[in-house]
Amino acid sequence: MTADRGRTIESVQLTLSRLMRASASRATFARQAAAAGGVDLKQPSYDLLRVLIETGPIPMGELARRSQMDVGMATRQVAGLAEEGLVSRSPDPSDRRVTLVEPTAAGRTTTEALRRVRTRHLQSALDGWSAEDLRTLDTLLGRFLDDTFATPFQPE
């Protein structure tokens, strides 16, 4: 690896760290929730609801996998969401041992309010970007995720 490529990869790592910290920031999420009319939802619950809205009813294990959470954490989050009336749980008709989770109308409304706030923020932040730059960012981010998930970690 050339020195320049090594410096660039290090810069990418640092930028990704900043992005991940910003994305996981409770303070940032709280400001988004406030802007969405005081939505009472935490980031992990929002992530689960987004997956459920994208996929429709799915088993708990599949929901955890798609949300990048362990099953225990996903189960606790879903229990809280069910208590709040944002998701429903029901037995899978094809295998009654499996519980399917799906968003309720209230869950969809809450998630959509947050999604609109986040979308408006991103639109404002990227307002000065050309359509070509936005397409390039979208393409490269997708490629980056595909490549990083497909690449195994190498031991020291």
Low-pLDDT residue intervals, each spanning 5 or more residues: none
Quickly give the structural class.
mainly alpha
**Quaternary organization:** single chain
- In angstroms, what is the radius of gyration? 19 Å
The CATH homologous superfamily is termed: Winged helix-like DNA-binding domain superfamily/Winged helix DNA-binding domain
Largest sheet: 3 strands, antiparallel
Q: How many helical elements?
A: 7
Judging by the overall fold, what is the CATH architecture?
A: Orthogonal Bundle
CATH topology grouping:
Arc Repressor Mutant, subunit A
Total domain count: 1
Structure overview:
- The chain has seven helices and three strands, in the order αααβααββαα.
- With 156 residues, it is mostly helical.
- The chain has a single domain (3-150), classed as Orthogonal Bundle (Arc Repressor Mutant, subunit A), CATH 1.10.10.10.
- It has a three-stranded antiparallel sheet with strand order 1-3-2.
- A hairpin with a 2-residue loop joins strand 2 and strand 3.
- Helix 3 (43-55) packs across helix 6 (105-125).
- The model has no long low-confidence stretch (mean pLDDT 93).
